[in-house]
Amino acid sequence: MTQSDSDSSSSGIDDAVVTVSHVCQNYGSTEVLHDVSLTIDRGTIAALIGPSGSGKTTLVSAIMGMLAPQSGFVQVLGRRMPNRRLLGSIGYMAQNDALYTDLTALENLRFFGAVLSMDRRTLRTAIAQVASVVGLEKDLRTKVGNFSGGMKRRLSLAIAMISDPPILILDEPTVGIDPELRRQIWGELRRLAGAGRTILLTTHVMEDAQRSDRLIMIRQGMNIAEGTPDEVISQFGAPTLEDAFIAAGKGQDAHHSNH
Fold first, then answer.
1. φ/ψ of residue 131, rounded to 5
2. I need a surface site. Which of 40, 63, 131, 140 has the fewest CB within 10 A?
3. Angle of helix 120-133 relative to helix 105-115, nearest 10 degrees?
4. According to the model, what pLDDT value does residue 95 have?
5. What is the 3-state secondary structure (H, E, C) of the chain?
């Protein structure tokens, strides 16, 4: 048994694909994450919501292994992060599109597929599949430099899904995407989750948060509420998810002022 295997079995978190345990992270004197803990199980779509500057990006960076937390730990697929061997198991869609604008959409997809060592036949099938999901079949031979912002977001999502990884981490995946295509993308995310894929998305869009299986509200670097969307709404006796988030924030402020 490896050290990472013993870590996962001793802590009783074998079912969790992603585990964040008591993570704290400072930048200088600024505390960005304070004692954040959460788990995401296999086949779950989890939404991480919170205002700008709440610590979402730092938390995602820790889950992906792009930074090692100053205290606490992150485990992905039973292994402590950072772990370079797990990079191929995580499909990532960044908030800022990392695309080659002088290449066509097809060339971008082929390039990222090659980076992931996909064989030619598998890659050809995968490109047809993901292009269909994001509605770019007719635009594959167009240079990305000529794409609108929404088209670039769709291509970034296609690239994240290209190798059918066990984990997808999607940063604001539906920004700039029209409602009809958003519904189609959610249909695909549901299909992937049903096939055992685990999806973590960050969002400001309450409609996306409402569609998730599990909701994690983060504010001022702290996890202020967690559960299914209905559980969170019920917990705060709120009419909507947005009202629940506002109530959770007020509760956090009141707690701070009393200490």
1. -65, -35
2. 140
3. 130
4. 83
5. CCHHHHHHHHCCCCCEEEEEEEEEEEECCEEEEEEEEEEEECCCEEEEECCCCCCHHHHHHHHHCCCCCCEEEEEECCEECCCHHHHHHEEEECCCCCCCCCCEHHHHHHHHHHHCCCCHHHHHHHHHHHHHHCCCHHHCCCEHHHCCHHHHHHHHHHHHHCCCCCEEEEECCCCCCCHHHHHHHHHHHHHHHHCCCEEEEEECCHHHHHHCCEEEEEECCEEEEEECHHHHHHHCCCCCHHHHHHHHHHHHHHHHHCC
Q: Model confidence over 48-106: pLDDT tens digits? A: 999 888 999 999 999 999 999 999 999 999 999 999 989 889 999 988 888 999 999 99
What's the farthest any 2 CA atoms get from each other in the chain? Answer: 62
Decide which of 204 and 113 is more confident.
113
CB 152 within 8 A of CB 97: yes
Tokens (6 digits) for 23: 């993570």
Strand order in the sheet with 79-80: 30-41, 16-27, 71-76, 79-80
Spatial contact of 55 and 33, defined as CB atoms under 8 Å apart: yes
Is residue 259's pLDDT more than 70?
A: no
Cα 3 to its chain centre, rounded Å, is 27
Residue-level length of the chain:
259
Distances (CA, A) of 132 to 90, 162, 180, 203, 235: 21, 12, 14, 23, 39
